[in-house]
Amino acid sequence: MPTTVFDQFTRRTADVTAQLTTLGIPLTAPTPPPADPDPDDPWASSYTVPVDRSTLAWCTAAQMLADHHHTGIDHQVLAADALLRELGVRGLAQLHTDLHHGAPIDYRFTPCPYCSGIGEDPTQPDCQDAGCPPQYEFAGHDHLCPVCRGADYQPQWLAEEHMPELEQLLADAIEEREERASLRYRIRTRLHRRTVRT
Predict the structure, then answer these.
(1) What whole-number distance in Å separates Cα of residue 81 and Cα of residue 76?
(2) CB count in 10 Å sphere of residue 26
(3) Closest by alpha carbon to 77, among 55, 53, 95, 113?
(4) DSSP letters along the chain, please?
(5) pLDDT tens across 120-169, in order?
(6) What is the pLDDT of residues 78-123, one digit of tens each?
């Protein structure tokens, strides 16, 4: 049975929610009143904003954290809650950068953890399904992925395009190194001549 890229979103959500259900972790972060949190509930929070743990964004955050830290999802529940509560879906981009030690992520070469490189928000219908007017197609119409901002993930094509640029940078670096080596040789020769004369 052939699978599409959209099947993986359903599978990711189903896998994570099944693990939460098996572990007895609620699919919605409990929101007790801030003045009287339940000290016996380890999954409770003091925030009044509920977090739906069955959304694609939450499941992606929990999976990213669990994979990075080599732990079970149950150890990352509170971290995923905090991330989405504080930053929302856009926080996945910050999390992705943080997990790569602060290095910027170029989504043309790295698949987006949320949309898997399709560049559109997988939770929103596309223009055709939503019935958007055709003139919106080229007007920066918002159906873009909130994490990668619609970056076109095509590493093979972009690599071919960047190879001449990289070759030129390498050639420039080699030429500059040779010029510096030549300058050092001339300086060393002159200094040697002066010391020999004296």
Answers:
(1) 9
(2) 13
(3) 53
(4) ----HHHHHHHHHHHHHHHHHHHT--SB-----TTS--TT-TT--S-SS--BTTSHHHHHHHHHHHHHHT--GGGSHHHHHHHHHHHGGGHHHHHHHHHTTTPPP-TTTS--TTTTTS-B-TTSPPHHHHT--GGGGGTT-S-B-TTTTT----HHHHHHHHHHHHHHHHHHHHHHHHHHHHHHHHHHHHHHHHHHH-
(5) 888 877 666 666 766 666 655 667 888 998 888 887 777 777 778 878 88
(6) 899 889 888 888 899 999 999 988 888 888 888 899 988 888 888 8
